[in-house]
Amino acid sequence: MVRSRWKGIYVAKELQNYNTVSNPTIVTTERSSVIIPYYLSKTIYVYNGRKYVGVKITEKSLGRKLGEYVLTKKVEKYKASKKVKKK
User: Which family does it belong to?
Assistant: First the structure.
């Protein structure tokens, strides 16, 4: 479902009050926060459940959520089965 327009966009309080002058790295666990223009050309480290993954913010990513750029599940790679040669 889409968030109601009258509520506005959701940005975590820890991201709103972040001072990049004293601490240039932004670290958060809020995957549901919307990317706003204040974070343009900065790197935000988002927690995916195991480790923090860096997300570089560009103009194309404005208005989207941080969780869209951080995968939480490992991509499964299937190995090719070995064929047995008959003698």
Answer: Belongs to the universal ribosomal protein uS19 family.
